[in-house]
Each structure stands twice: as C-alpha cells, then as structure tokens.
Specification:
The complex is a heterodimer.
Chain A lengths: L1 H16 L1 H21 L1 H6 L5 H23 L1 H7 L2 H5 L5 H30 L9 H25 L4 H16 L12 H9 L1 H14 L6 H24 L4
Chain B lengths: L1 E10 L2 E11 L4 E5 L6 H8 L7 E6 L8 H7 E4 L11 H11 L4 H14 L15 H12 L6 E5 L7 H18 L2 E6 L2 H7 L2 E6 L2 E6 L1 H8 L4 H9 L10 H13 L1
Parallel strand pairs in B: 3-7, 3-8, 5-6, 6-7
Antiparallel strand pairs in B: 1-2, 1-4, 8-9
Helix pairs in contact in B: 3-4, 3-5, 8-9
Classes of the chains: A mainly alpha, B alpha/beta.
Chain lengths: 248, 261
Amino acid sequence: MRVIYILWLREVKKYLRSKTQVVASLGSPIMYLGVLGFGLGPVFQRAGEGSYLQFMAPGVIGMTVLFTSMFSGIALLWDRQFGFLKETLVAPVPRFWIMTGRTLGGATVAMIQGLLIFLISLLAGFRPTSIQTLPVALFVIAMVAVVFAAFGTIIGSSLKDMQGFQLVMNFLVMPIFFLSGALYPLTNLPKVLAVLTRLDPLTYGVDGVRAALIGVTQFGITLDVAALAGVAAVLLAAGAWRFSKIEI
Amino acid sequence: MIRVENLVKRFGEVTAVDDVSFEVHRGEVFAFLGPNGAGKTTTVKMLTTLLRPTSGKIEFDGLDPTVKRDEVRRRFGVVFQDPSLDQDLTAWENMEIHGVLYGVPKRERRERAETLLKLFELWERRDALVKTFSGGMRRRLEIARGLLHTPKVLFLDEPTLGLDPQSRNQMWTHVKSLNEQDQVTVFLTTHYMDEADRVADRIAVIDHGRIVAVGSSQELKERTNTDSLEGAFLALTGTTIRDETASAADTMRQVARMWRR
C-alpha cells in the first residue's frame, strides 16, 4: 500500500511542480473551447441544436483527460531507458503494484487537468444545468482517466522507440478524440461513422459527462458507466500483463 | 557471495553470454572488463534478476535469483549504465522513494539517507532538484541511493561513463572506502583499464560473451607477459574494433545525450 501511495504521490508531485507543462497542456483545449466553441456557435444554433459551447464543453473536458492520461502512460517508454522506471523494476515489490501506483497517479493528474478545463469553460460561459449531479460527472471523468491511463500503459510498455510515438498520436489518440462525439452530436451519422463512434470508449465518457452536466445523453448514464467500467477492467488487465512483460 | 556456473543468454540467434562461470568472493571488488558488446551488461542484468538466463546457474548469497527473486533483490544495490533517477524530484525525495520501495522503516530510512548523503557530499544539496545536478553528482546520488537498504553487493554497470577525471576519481575513492569499511562486495563493469587496475581485487576479462581470463591485475599481466593491464587486455581480446549493431536503446541514448547538453 505504501508503495502504491508513494508512486502515486510522485506522479502528482511532479505534475504540480511543472507549471509550464500545466499551462502548455491547457493550450489546445482552450483553443477548442474558444475558437470552435464560439466560431461554430452560430451555425450550430441555426441548425436548431442550441448552444454549441454548452454542447462541446463536456467533450473538451473528455479530450483533456484523454490526452493527459495517454501521455502519462506513453511517457513510460522514455522512463524505461532514461528514467526512474528501472529503479522501480528492480525493487523487491510486485510489478502490479508499480503499475497500479503509476496508473492511478497518471489518472489523478488527468482528472485535475479535466477539472481545470471545467473551471475555464465556466469562465467562457458554460452553464451546467444541475449542480447535484456534479459528483456523477466527476465519477465519469475519473473512469475516463483510468481507462486511458491504462491504455497508455499498454502502449508505453509495447513501443520500442520514440518514432512509434507519432504513429500512436496520429492513428490512435486523434481518432479516439474525433470519433468520440466530443465535437458533434451522434444522431443521424453515416453508417460507418455511427459504428465507429460506438466502438470508441471516449464516446461513453463524453456522453456520461454530458448526461451529468447538461442532462443531454445519447445512451443514458447507466450504459455509459457500464461501458466504461467494462473497458477499464479489460484495459487494466491488459496493461498489467504488458507491464509485467517489460524487459530492460 | 555470487557463484555463476555455465551461464548462457541467447537473444534469438545471437548468443550474448556464452557459457560463463565465475565466482565473486565476499567483500572483494570484482571487475568485469571487456570491449563494447562483450556481454557485460547482459550478465549484470541476469545477476540483478532483470533477465532470465537461457541456461546455467546463478547462486546469490546462497539463493537462486529466479526462484527467490525478492530476497535476492533486497541483497543488492545497482547503478545502471543509463541514469535511473527521477530528475524532477529532489535528491532527498529520490532517497525516500527508494527506502519505501525496499521497505526500510521510516526512522532507519531517514538516518541512513542522511549518513549516505553526507558521505557522498550531497547533503547540502538534498532539497535541490536532480536535474540541476552535474553528471558526477547524479552518479554519486545513484550510488548513495543503491546503498540505502544496506545491500551486501553493489553492482556498478559502467558507472563512470561520461564523467570527467575528477568526478571519476572522487567516485572511486568513495566506493573503495565503502568497500573497506562496510565490507560491501562491489561488482563493476567497465572498459577503462586504469579503473579496473586501480580499484579491483580481481578482474574477469570477457569478450564475445566468454570469459577469457580471471585473476588479479598482477596475475593477468604475468600471464600475458605484458607490463600494463592495457597490454594484457589487448593481448587477451585482440585489437579488432567491435562493430555493434545499434539497438533501439542505443538510438534513444544518442538522443538523450543530445538533449542533455
């Protein structure tokens, strides 16, 4: 327990110390909120869908959590050769604890980032329809964070060099974001897109956050949480397995 | 302390360590000397439970590392070829985490961390982030950290790579005094002959995954009829330059070096 705690604490401490990184990582979500939110607002309104900012703010929160937690996992690759990971891998503790501490730490950091974006979106004019359901939103965000931190761990344990990183960014992280319905409603989509969006775990995360914050949902909060829990279980197990196979 | 019999490690077609046998006695400084790609690091990885041998036997303080992995891990400290400190944490925090990972009780952990940091002349800088440290300071911190859980054996895998002569000199002075005072067995790998000559009680020369000679520096010189260890080394391993194919880790190592400058 102490081992998991201290590895978790390490991730959080490092995050709180890297002020520039915090600011930098908030850059693109703010762009999405500010530029797309206000830029596409009028079109969205005319299409009869209401306020675009209201609609996309949960999506941008989801995006922030996705990016932050994936990165924390992928950072493993660098850490393995030139970082602290080796120190933990020769310690007399089960690898599963190490992976748990790291993943929970990465997920916590992603959650904090998501909350920051939530606060910023409030400043931009986002208005949740209900405050009572805020804990539900937090819970969903936490699940999204765990899902993608575990996913990042799988990738970070499997990649061999930094070149693979670009590949993962372009063919995995970006599609997960664009297919999640963070930026557009999931109704009346072309067949292929409809199927793909439903295979994307982030879809259920964004939908869950929307359900909790603005009362709009495609699948219902129960299905959202169930889907996320299922994916989390699978990815955590796979992450633990990949992590146990790391050779340095 | 360590007994290795007929140790073999194959990666696919390549045999990195080929039927190696040797023994390290309690309290001695034992050096693995060999050119690049000779199998030094692979052997260290097997001794430190990070790689499983393809075949052969290792006995570590009477224990088999493949079976009693965690007990063996508690008995050694290791400084890897590539850095393994957390640069965004302070020296003290790095020590703390190590202590927790090895289950050292809080009071003992703090006391020992203080003693070691003082010994390695890092106490004044304990609250500074590691990324502000020089190469020599980082190495010293890694060694101090590796000793925190009072290991019986300290592994040093090319510990002086990239250090200036002053830092190297200071580092070996510390290691040597620790070895003499606390009876810590030291297992080091290097390709600097002068280092092995200076600190090691016994030297094993390894080449192409095989041990070609074992003995004190004096014995090696006598055996090869040369007057320096360098001469003995070249006589034993030949003068051809080793071309290694670069692995992914090597490529990353180059990038890392560029970034550090």
